[in-house]
Amino acid sequence: MAAGNLTRVSEFLLLGLSEEPELQPVLFGLFLSMYLTTVLGNLLIILAVSSDSHLHTPMYFFLSNLSLVDICFTSTSIPKMLVNIQTQSKAITYAGCITQVCFFILFGTLDDILLTVMAYDRFVAICHPLHYMVIMNPRLCGLLLLVSWIISALNSLLQCLMVLRLSFCPSLEIPHFFCELNQVTQLACSDTFFNNIVIYFVTLLLGVGPLSGILYSYSKIVSSIQAIPSAQGKYKAFSTCVSHLSVVSLFYGTSLGVYLSSAVTHNSQSSAIASVLYTVVTPMLNPFIYSLRNKDIKRALNRFFVVSGTQGTIT
Predict the structure, then answer these.
(1) Residue 11: beta bridge partners?
(2) What is the mean pLDDT of residues 307-314?
(3) How far apart are CA 126 and CA 118, in angstroms?
(4) C-alpha distances in Å from residue 16, one per residue of 84, 94, 112, 221, 237
(5) Most Cβ neighbours (<10 Å): which of 72, 136, 150, 298?
(6) Do residues 72 and 117 touch, judged by C-beta distance below 8 A?
(7) Do residues 42 and 68 make contact, with C-beta atoms less than 8 angstroms apart?
(8) 125/132 Cα distance (integer angstroms)
């Protein structure tokens, strides 16, 4: 197909999770509440870490960055979905769709890599406790964060450039509530062989690689915990990993579930519904998982609100 055909692509149509008119108000209310909960919960984590000097440690540094990424991750898809439901429109511009693809990949990859970095942090804290602050110094933490951003940005740039080279067929309906990379690629009329190769290779590299790192870290952590003589010491060491392990299980479990369900059923609508688990539900639950069992964050938030209330009374 001629390259000039690409310029006539002005918009895509996002079919959403359901085309039933009576379900649209329900979907709007549900996703608006989940989005606001996600933003508020993660903002509270960032607020707690930034306001309390006792939380200025590597573990909470990466946690606050994960919360920021989760806010950005959900913000790439949910607001546009809510606008479309409210305006009773399914359209998203070509530029808007490509932008959504780029940022979704960027922040999704960052989520993946940051969970791996946090596993390494827990590995150092439990397996090398005496050298923890020496190893996880501010310079290394900053470097790990910078490398995470660079890898994510390069992946996003590569995938977006591969999409930009495609020309599209007249039928531009995406059976999803956001511009998902695979769905957009499937709409192309031009050859997508290299696009699929890049997608599968990067997914394998950035999926298996970080997960292998997490599993290796926790295998060493479990060995170290078993070597601790006292039951109280074992519990204390393991309790520092429970929240992160829960988030990792939720993230990879839902992502793998969506992948397997789409591979087995080949139903785009079912895949779109299942993808809500890792695009919306997981970022929403992360703050609750980290705060419910974390006395330090609870203490920091209580202190912040008490101080804020006191200052408000004085003024």
Answers:
(1) 93
(2) 53
(3) 12
(4) 9, 17, 25, 42, 44
(5) 136
(6) no
(7) yes
(8) 5
CA distance 313 to 272: 49
pLDDT in tens, 136-161: 999 999 999 999 999 999 999 999 99
**How many other C-beta atoms can be found within 10 angstroms of the C-beta atom of residue 93?**
13
DSSP secondary structure string for all residues of 246-288? HHHHHHHHHHHHHHHHHHHH--HHHHHHHHHIIIIIHHHHHHH
Q: How far is CA 255 from CA 96, 162, 258, 281, in A?
A: 24, 23, 5, 11
pLDDT at residue 293 in the model: 67
Helix, coil or strand: residue 86 = helix
Helices (H), 165-230: 181-186, 193-226
Spell out the residues 6+ positions from residue 298 whose beta carbon is closer than 8 angstroms to its own.
291
Phi, psi of 104 (to 5 degrees): -65, -45
Give yes or no for a contact between 31 and 278, defined as CB atoms under 8 angstroms apart: no
175-190 residue pLDDT tens: 899 999 988 998 998 8
> Of 123, 117, 112, which Cα lies nearest the Cα of 140?
117
pLDDT at 313: 39
Q: pTM to 2 decimals?
A: 0.90
3-state class of 64 per DSSP? Answer: helix
Token output for 61: 């540094």
